Amino acid sequence: MKFQILTLFPEFFETPLQATILGRAHDKGLVDYELVDIRDFATDKHKTTDDLPYGGGAGMVMKPEPLVGALEHAREQDPAAPRILMSPQGEPLSQSLAHELAELPGMILTCGRYEGIDERVRQGWIDREVSIGDYVLSGGEPGALVLIDAVTRLLPGVLGNEASIREESFADGRLEYPQYTRPREFRGRQVPEVLLSGNHQKIADWRREQSVERTKQRRPDLLQDD
Question: Which reaction is this enzyme known to catalyze (predicted)?
Answer without folding.
Answer: guanosine(37) in tRNA + S-adenosyl-L-methionine = N(1)-methylguanosine(37) in tRNA + S-adenosyl-L-homocysteine + H(+)
